[in-house]
Amino acid sequence: MGMVTGSIGEDPESGLLLVPPAEAKFSVGVALWDDADDVYRSFVRQSLPDGWEDSVLEDAVAGRSERQTLLPVVVQLVPRPDNDYNPKAISVAAPPSQGGSDHERHMGYMYERNLVSLGGPLRALASLSDRPVGCHALVEVHPVDERWADEDEEFGEQFRIRGARRSYSFSSLRLRLPWWEDLQAMTAVYSRSVRPDLISPFIGHWSSYSEGAHEELLRRTDQKEFPVTLRVRDGRLTASYEDLELSVLVPSGRDFFDRTMRQVQEMGGTATAVAEEHSGALKVFIEDSAPVGLPSGP
User: Fold this and answer.
1) Which end is more exposed in the chain, N or C (fewer Cβ atoms within 10 Å of the end residue's Cβ)?
2) Of 76, 73, 103, 78, which Cα lies nearest the Cα of 89?
3) What's the whole-model pTM score?
4) Whether 208 contacts 247, CB under 8 Å
């Protein structure tokens, strides 16, 4: 896994709550959106400072191969619950400094295979922070033959910009996000500083509703996702919506709510978490899926 230094914190230059980067070779890809080609090109141009051929490209962090040239950039990560295909989608957008709304600055999406482990912490950060969330990223850069000297001439899915000495094509975008365990741990630390009562929604586990609770919940709210209060009382861990007890979260080798029970006890016996209605069962999101006897994640 990639080495990560630093912690999640505010970055005055970009105006983002910035996740620290992992090593470049552990970066994950972005599905760039065809309809956002102009936005991506504008983003790359605005990311090139004066003297960029010498000051940026030659000093770029080494990537998956020693000979690869990369342009370091910063991007915004935007949860998109309005996405009809996947309400848990996360958009990759140009940073706020480039103007316009985050929808206008949209360039692409994180791949679903990466959302499985990284999506929970990133959505948690966005919900907790009073500023946009972002991360470090890399644009792949390739020197091209001098015959292609026209600025922005099409070349497959790439585009090119003429430098002082030659032309360069700019292609895919990759996110320098930490390994999922590191990201969860850092997010839990940040979450405690902002909301010491909150258990971050990383991992979802199912539980049966208490008798009559499901029907009453549906009468009170039509939201698929909602906050619940976790309480430890008389050796039981329960999840409630307002004053309605929804479920007794029974620790077992399958559900792993035993560590959550201990965590809620350490938080004074009461904590807030996120849950959702899921095909007639209650799905509660917690921070750790390991039973008490095994090493903890975050």
Assistant:
1) N
2) 78
3) 0.84
4) yes
